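Propose amino acids for all 404 sites.
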């Protein structure tokens, strides 16, 4: 019998099945289990474990000592504890859009969660140019609740500070500080720039001192602004979706930071889907339908978030000064400014940096891919440099058709 009690090790599929029977109290004693490692992300191991007799299934997620994307990133397995705890918090705040989780194991650095195999990763669905009319409604409810209700506006301040301590996440934050805020904006050896895009990057990104200065300011905001409990990696690869339903997964980058970070990630990754649709859909009518859907969704993400945020503020704000005339408007304006900035940072880092997105890399024609990447980078610069001018959903989309 395998020892799961005294020392950590990275599990095989067979060991994950054994672990499920011994530790999870989820399957029947006579269960006939099959297990497959299905993780396709950059960091963790994800096991889908199923009982062939009952069809009951569960996901077991284990944190390894290094990132799967590169063994350069040495990571504390404590990120698994952070992820399991924030999923519980998010489930309490927005159960409709968060998977249910089960016990966390501090020895094996793993936890179990409900199987969402009947959902599809949103990025994959968007690359197939599927549309989800309810997505903006769902994701804005998720973000408004998780970002405002974990802030000083609502929480008792000592309780909030305890959460800040609990969600200190230095290794994962360092990855974000490096890959998002720093490396894309100079010729770092870890960058991976598509050949056709390189000359634009050299001149317009690495050669722009004003842009460098603004990203420096943004990096220090990210490191010092403990505003809300973030998901920390809220892109379309961290969202499971199907018609009428949305589930947000993989919050292992969670920590207290600027609320606009989550919203900006959603916006940027919708723009990647927009770029893909523009370059890969050959039928004019189909292309117009899909890209219009994406633009409308970005607009709704901003405007619905604002509406829900304002309503939640009115219903839940406990901090006295939060009710002073003009303060709510100021607070929300700073979130939208951060949202625009982060949209630009995410667009830049996925084009220039180490971790790519399939929306762009799946564009087969090299000229089309180059054009899509340059358009993303032009939008990125505008978002970063003019970030204080983005106040409405229309502001976020009005220039995109011209750029693409």
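Proposal:
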């Amino acid at each position: 019998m395998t020892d799961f009690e005294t020392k950590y090790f990275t599990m095989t599929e067979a060991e994950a099945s054994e672990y499920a029977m011994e530790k999870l109290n989820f399957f029947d004693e006579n269960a006939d289990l099959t297990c497959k490692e299905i993780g396709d992300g950059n960091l963790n191991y994800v096991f889908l474990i199923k009982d062939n007799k009952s069809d009951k299934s569960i996901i077991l997620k284990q944190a390894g000592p290094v990132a799967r994307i590169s063994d350069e990133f040495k990571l504390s397995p404590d990120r698994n504890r952070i992820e399991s705890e924030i999923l519980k918090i998010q489930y309490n705040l927005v159960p409709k859009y968060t998977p249910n989780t089960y016990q966390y194991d501090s020895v094996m650095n793993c936890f179990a969660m409900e199987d969402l195999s009947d959902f599809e990763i949103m990025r994959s669905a968007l690359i197939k140019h599927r549309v989800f009319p309810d997505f903006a409604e769902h994701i804005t409810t998720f973000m408004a609740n998780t970002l405002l209700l974990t802030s000083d506006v609502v929480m008792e301040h000592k309780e909030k500070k305890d959460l800040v301590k609990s969600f200190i996440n230095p290794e994962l934050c360092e990855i974000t500080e490096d890959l998002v805020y720093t490396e894309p904006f100079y010729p770092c050896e870890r960058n991976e720039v598509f050949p056709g895009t390189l000359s634009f990057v050299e001149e317009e990104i690495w050669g722009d001192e004003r842009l460098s200065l603004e990203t420096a300011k943004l990096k220090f905001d990210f490191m010092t602004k403990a505003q809300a409990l973030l998901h920390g990696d809220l892109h379309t690869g961290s969202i499971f979706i199907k018609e009428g339903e949305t589930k947000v997964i993989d919050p292992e980058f969670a920590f207290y930071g600027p609320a606009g970070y989550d919203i900006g990630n959603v916006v940027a990754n919708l723009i990647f889907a927009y770029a893909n649709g523009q370059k890969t859909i050959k039928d004019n009518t189909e292309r117009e339908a899909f890209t219009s859907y994406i633009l409308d969704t970005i607009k709704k993400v901003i405007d619905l978030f604002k509406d829900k945020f304002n309503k939640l503020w009115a219903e839940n704000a406990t901090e006295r000064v939060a009710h002073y005339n003009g303060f709510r408007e100021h607070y929300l304006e700073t979130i939208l400014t951060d949202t625009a900035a982060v949209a630009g940072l995410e667009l830049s880092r996925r084009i220039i940096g180490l971790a790519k997105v399939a929306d762009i890399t799946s564009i087969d024609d090299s000229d089309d891919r180059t054009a899509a990447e340059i358009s993303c980078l032009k939008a990125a610069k505008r978002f970063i440099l003019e970030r204080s001018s983005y106040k409405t959903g229309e502001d976020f989309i009005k220039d995109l058709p011209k750029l693409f």
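The beta strands are 33-37, 45-51, 57-62, 101-105, 110-114, 120-121, 228-229, 239-242, 245-248, 256-257. The chain has two domains: 13-114, 120-403.
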